[in-house]
Design brief:
The protein is of the alpha/beta class. It is built from 14 helices and nine strands. The structure holds fe (iii) ion.
Length: 349
């Protein structure tokens, strides 16, 4: 209840700020699920380059989607930054985004990292990627036993697997990707196999799963790449010891490639400043912004021909190269509805 009242109060403030701005005072109301200090520099640079002032509302992804729905046509939001293909798909399916046409974005961002195009345009664009990888105990597990997603469900890995809840968007998207590659029936069998291999009931975030491997509670875990990069960059002795003990595998190098997820942006359905919103998204696709946006969270840029110099990512991938899947993330997002039903059927909490 309090949360809702705060949301409305904040929305009201934003509206007041927007109304108070003079005609020359260009503004952009940004709802962001990203909270990195490097993003601050990014916004400041945008304002410096364009004169457009950014009013930012921070919330988590679920909170942003709920707020947009509650605010409806009165929403002050112009542009939305979300994390995860499953959530971007949710926003698209719920009609919260205004599809856009932008030559700049279409040229910069490969089609696999965009929402489904229609006559009106494209509903969202991805600006950074993260890989969903396997972490294992080097003392107890052979790398070749966990170097594919399929093997995580193999009886040879019984009692070894730690993974966060199945319905968390990171997993929904991974499973939606597996469904795109293996089809519905095999994917449900595979999910059943994962449940059979649990070392414990799902709990905690990705970092907790890695720590559980370090603590000997499980031997195999699934995590987004940037959590591993964060631990690799940590100076804490316990983190250094943890990263000595665990190995990292980018799965399916000999088949369809490792699953990639994205952080992305969209123009809000009821945006009052949509021209500024498009400008902002185009700015995010520029090489300089791409570097900040991706590097700030140890991710990879989506824009063509942009590379980041990130030591942790280099180390994790033996020089930075790995085979990533190439299926459209729009399809992955769309699969997540069916995936949720499968999870209920196989008892994957
Ligand atoms: Fe995360």
């Amino acid at each position: 209840m309090t949360h809702r009242r705060n949301a409305i109060a904040v929305a009201g403030l934003l509206l007041a700020a927007a109304t108070a701005a003079s005609a020359q005072d260009q503004v952009l109301n940004l709802y962001s699920a990203r909270h990195y200090s490097t993003d601050e520099a990014l916004y400041a640079d945008f304002t410096k380059a364009t004169g457009i002032k950014i009013n930012r509302v921070d919330a988590d992804d679920a909170g942003i989607l709920a707020r947009l729905k509650a605010e409806g046509a009165a929403s002050p939001a112009d542009v939305i930054l979300l994390v995860d293909a499953a959530r971007l798909h949710r926003g698209e399916a719920d009609g919260l985004f205004k599809p856009i046409k932008s030559k700049v974005l279409e040229e910069a961002i490969p089609a696999q990292y965009r929402g489904r195009e229609s006559a009106e345009g494209t509903p969202w664009f991805g600006f950074s990627t993260r890989a969903r990888v396997v972490v294992y105990d080097k003392l107890k597990v052979k790398r070749e036993d966990v170097d594919t997603y399929e093997e995580l469900a193999d009886p040879k890995n019984k009692g070894k697997l730690c993974i966060r809840t199945g319905s968390h968007p990171y997993n929904l998207s991974l499973f939606g990707s597996v469904m795109e590659h293996m089809g519905e029936q095999r994917t449900q069998e595979w999910l059943k196999g994962l449940v059979a291999n649990f070392a414990r009931q799902p709990k905690g975030g990705d970092t907790d799963q890695i720590r559980a491997v370090g603590a000997g509670e499980c031997q195999v875990a699934v995590s987004n790449s940037y959590y591993i990069a964060r631990l690799m960059r940590s100076d804490k002795p316990e983190d250094k010891a943890l990263m000595e003990r665990v190995g990292v595998v980018f799965p399916n190098q000999n088949s369809w490639g490792t699953h990639l997820n994205i952080a992305g942006g969209a123009v809000a359905k009821n945006a009052k400043n949509s021209a500024n919103a498009v400008k902002f998204l185009e700015y995010l696709a520029s090489p300089q912004a791409q570097n900040y946006f991706a590097n700030g969270n140890n991710e990879w840029p989506t824009a063509k021909n942009v590379k980041v110099d990130n030591r942790a990512l280099q180390a994790m991938t033996d020089g930075g190269e790995f085979k990533a899947e190439t299926i459209p993330l729009a399809a992955v997002g769309a699969n997540t509805v069916k995936v949720q039903q499968m999870l209920d059927r196989v008892g994957f909490k």
